[in-house]
Amino acid sequence: MSNLPAIASASRLVVQQQREMLEVFTSFESSNRYVVRAADGQVALYAAESGGGALAFLTRSFLKAKRPFTMHVLRPGGGVALTLRRPWNWFFSELRVDDERGQPLGMIDQRFALFARRFVILGPGGEALAELHGPWFRPWTFRIMRGGQELGKITKQWSGLLKEAFTDADNFGLELGPAMEPQLRTLALAATFLIDFLYFEDSNRR
After folding, report:
1. Where are the domains positioned within the chain?
2. Using one digit for the tens of pLDDT, what is the confidence trace for 58-97?
3. Could you read off the pLDDT of 101-152 as tens digits, one per residue?
4. How far is 35 from 189, CA to CA, in rounded Å?
5. What is d(CA 206, CA 58) in angstroms, rounded to the nearest whole number?
6. Which of 45, 107, 63 is nearest to 198 (CA)?
7. Cα separation, 95 vs 120, whole angstroms
8. 21 burial level (CB within 10 Å; 0-12, 13-18, 19+)
9. Read out DSSP for 52-111?
10. What is the rounded CA–CA span in Å between residue 68 and residue 106?
């Protein structure tokens, strides 16, 4: 169960990726960092990809969107709220989510689908909580579904001509419907980071 009030009470969050100026002028990949804001613009959370040194630099530079990573989601006042871990996989990705005590909250599991992008959101015991569907003809939208009902939505937002032209920094809107329990809301936020890595990380480097 999530203990993050900013997520439990929000109907909408905005996830803004932050970029260093170095990446505007070079192709070198720096660690991903994000600010999560409430609908009124107030900072709800921060998130940062961990790891440094030569090995991490080479992994980010050459594997890019396929790299494994660990990311910490931080409260504005300090302290780790969530830890996200993406292990190495050849084909389908997964993202494991732990709470501040290191206890598993669940996992985002990518699945095969024809002409669509599909993920299953799993609880700590492997139970299916919801699915994410991203039709190929709507590449910016991922619907959070359960039993045929749309509970929420993750949408990549255009962030401005200059920003899109010179960096791969992205903004996402996360809509959280009233039928989403706190655990599912937390895992949907985690899924937003995975979607950015998988589908938008390299979109302006190709």
Report:
1. 5-200
2. 555 555 566 788 999 999 988 999 999 999 777 899 999 9
3. 999 999 999 999 888 899 999 999 999 999 999 988 888 999 999 999 999 9
4. 12
5. 18
6. 63
7. 11
8. exposed
9. -HHHHHHIIIIIGGG--EEEEEE-TTSSEEEEEEE---SSS-EEEEEETTS-EEEEEEEE
10. 18
Beta-carbon contacts of 104 under 8 Å, excluding residues fewer than 6 positions away, are 96, 97, 98, 124
Beta carbons within 8 Å of 98's beta carbon, 6+ residues apart: 82, 83, 84, 85, 104, 105
Q: Following CA atoms 134, 137, 138, 142 in sequence, which dihedral angle do they give, to the nearest 10 degrees?
A: 0
Q: Which is it for the CA torsion 99, 198, 153, 50, positive or negative?
A: positive
Residue with tokens 């302006």: 204
pTM of the model: 0.86
Residue with tokens 């996360």: 174
CATH number of 5-200: 2.40.160.200
d(CA 133, CA 13): 19
CB neighbour burial string for 94-111, b if at least 16 within 10 angstroms, e if fewer: bbbbbbeeeeebbbbbbe
Q: Identify the residue whose tokens are 């255009």.
A: 158
Sign of the four-CA dihedral 100, 154, 172, 88 = positive
Structure tokens at 115: 């002409």
Q: Which residues contact 81 (CB under 8 A, 6 or more apart)?
A: 4, 45, 73, 74, 75, 99, 100
